[in-house]
Amino acid sequence: TLPIVLHWFIYRSSVLAKTPSFLVLGPSGSGKTALVTKLETGHGSKTHTSQIPLTVQSHLPKSTVPKSWQYRSTADYETKAPKPLLLTDTPGHAKLRHYAYNSLASTTNPPTGILFVVDAADLSSSGTATGGANFALSDTAEYLHDVLLSLQKAYNNAKTSKAKEIPFLVAANKLDLFTALPAVAVKSTLEKDITRIRETRARGLLGVSTIGKGEGLGGNDEEGDDEREVLGGTSEGDFKFATMEEWNVSVEVVGGNAVGEDGPGVEGWWEWIGAQL
Ligand code: GDP
Question: What are the chain's domains?
Answer without folding.
Answer: 21-275 (3.40.50.300)
